[in-house]
Amino acid sequence: KDVVSLGSTVDIKYSDGEVETYLIVGSLEADPFNNKISNESPIGAAVIGKKKGEVATVTSPNGSFDVTITDIK
User: Fold this and answer.
1) Residue 23, SS3 per DSSP
2) Which pairing describes strands 19-25 and 63-72: parallel, antiparallel, or unpaired?
3) Is 10 helix (H, G, I), strand (E, B) or coil?
4) Contact at 8 Å (CB) between 60 and 73?
5) Is 13 helix (H, G, I), strand (E, B) or coil?
6) CA-to-CA distance for 52 and 61, rounded, in angstroms?
7) Which of 11, 40, 54, 67 would give a disulfide with 71, using CB separation of 3.0 to 4.6 Å?
8) From the DSSP assignment, how many helices (H) and strands (E) are in the chain?
9) What is the pTM of this model?
């Protein structure tokens, strides 16, 4: 897949270098403890439509931060 969409598994890298893998799902399927995040969550909404290598700005209640999309499966 070239673009993050519903059903994509995406690797994102935080500014501290940590990499996390998430499955983007609908809100009813969301299970953050199993790395299934909703497309409506702050991270999900930020990465939808982005391509590998792009930086997404996540807006959360604690402020904004950037993540880099390192892989889309």
Assistant:
1) strand
2) unpaired
3) strand
4) no
5) strand
6) 26
7) 11
8) 1, 5
9) 0.93
